[in-house]
Amino acid sequence: MRLKINLATQPYEDARRFMISWSSIIGVLVLLLVVLTYGVVKHWQHYRQMSQDLNRERQILADMDQKQKQGMAILNESSNRDVREKSEFINELIRRKEASWTTIFSDLEQLMPSNLRVLAVAPRLQQDKIMIQMQLGGESRERAAELARRMERSNVFRDAQIVSESNGTAEIQAQPRGPAPTDPWRFEMIAEYIPGVALAKPEQPKGSNEADQGSGR
């Protein structure tokens, strides 16, 4: 067996290969550092621009709020209170005039399921919105729920919901000799009305049409 023993005071090292390897590693790290630095700078510039835009929008909102407060303060003065009340009254009349009874009943007629009828309709203003409050009568709760779904799918009514309901079946059983009410179920429904919009009657599910036809027989 032969053993290679290096007795030199400075053993031989492949310095060239060492420098090439480490130079490549350092080059990759420097390139990665440049890329990361560029990304950080771009994100910081984007964030700075967004922050400036946000501050600008906040300043605009603050100015608008200040002007609104100044306007309300002027309207709340005793000398201008009559003008404000008259303006609110006129605006309310204008909003109420936008609700056409003929159009409302025509739209409801197109959306109304069978075996459900309107007993009373009353429009009212709520936060500058025209709300339609209806009293309905029908044979089952499913009909009122179907009307609410149809109103939601239309472009004339919005946020339709049943706020109260009552069933007269118990009264019929308690008083069998008395006259039976025309509508076993009574409902109160409320929905927002969008004036000046032509009704686009939504497509009804096939099962709903068949149920309406079956109920109308």
Structural classification: alpha+beta
Q: Round the Cα radius of gyration to an integer and report it.
A: 38 Å
Query: Could you name the CATH topology of the largest domain?
Result: Gyrase A, domain 2
CATH architecture of the largest domain: 2-Layer Sandwich
Verbal overview:
- The protein has 217 residues and is an alpha+beta fold.
- The protein has 2 domains: 16-71; 100-205 and 211-215, Gyrase A, domain 2.
- The chain is 55% helix and 19% strand.
- It is built from 6 helices and 4 strands.
- Strand 1 (116-126) and strand 2 form a beta hairpin.
Keywords for this entry:
disordered C terminus, 4-stranded antiparallel β-sheet, alpha+beta, Gyrase A, domain 2, 19% strand, 6 helices, 217 residues, 2 domains
Which helices and strands occur, and which strands form pairs?
Elements: H1 15-75, H2 81-98, H3 101-111, E1 116-126, E2 129-138, H4 141-153, E3 157-167, H5 169-174, E4 185-193, H6 206-216
